[in-house]
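hey m, so remember when u said the tokens were messed up on ur end? i reran from scratch. heres the input so u can diff it against urs
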Amino acid sequence: MTPDTQSELTFQTKLRGFDLAFTTTWGLFSPKAVDAGTQLLIEQLEIEEGDTCLDLGCGYGAIGVAMAKCPQTADVYMVDKDFVAIEYARKNVTQNQLSNCHVLLSNGFSHLPDIQFDVIASNLPANVGKELLQIFFIDAKRHLKQNGRMYVVTISGLREFIKRNFLKVFGNYCKVKQRNTHTVAMATVS
């Protein structure tokens, strides 16, 4: 075994009814299994026929892979600022035999092509700072089509911050689902 493969982890899981396989590594978020917040978000996503989707801060790609498996999804873009995350997201796209995914190294929206999305989904990290989260929301609004939807999952302690900022940026807020530790929220571009 090479040092690279010694540090790799693999697991299988079911998301949105699809059997999926993931390869990850130490240093990426939740490397041994899809975390509870991400699972909750994936369960709540409403994807319609022909939707173009974005997994913002994709990590090893659980959200993007799950969205891409939905037969009605047109294209899924997956972005992360971490080159290791991008490497594993690409591996997971390949091993789950997806042809409708585009995995890009990008700090937020900075290196995305000029594309408008129907759905943007993200498991927002709690430790990046509120200023960066506000920038993500403003950029997301610019990259969403009319009636486009932004879904986020956060620790429940950030619920009121998300609500205030969705109302400020999008003019609306919907608490989609809440569990003890996580909340899924959505805003729509009207």
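this time it looks ok to me. The radius of gyration is 16 Å. if urs says something different then somethings off w ur setup not the seq
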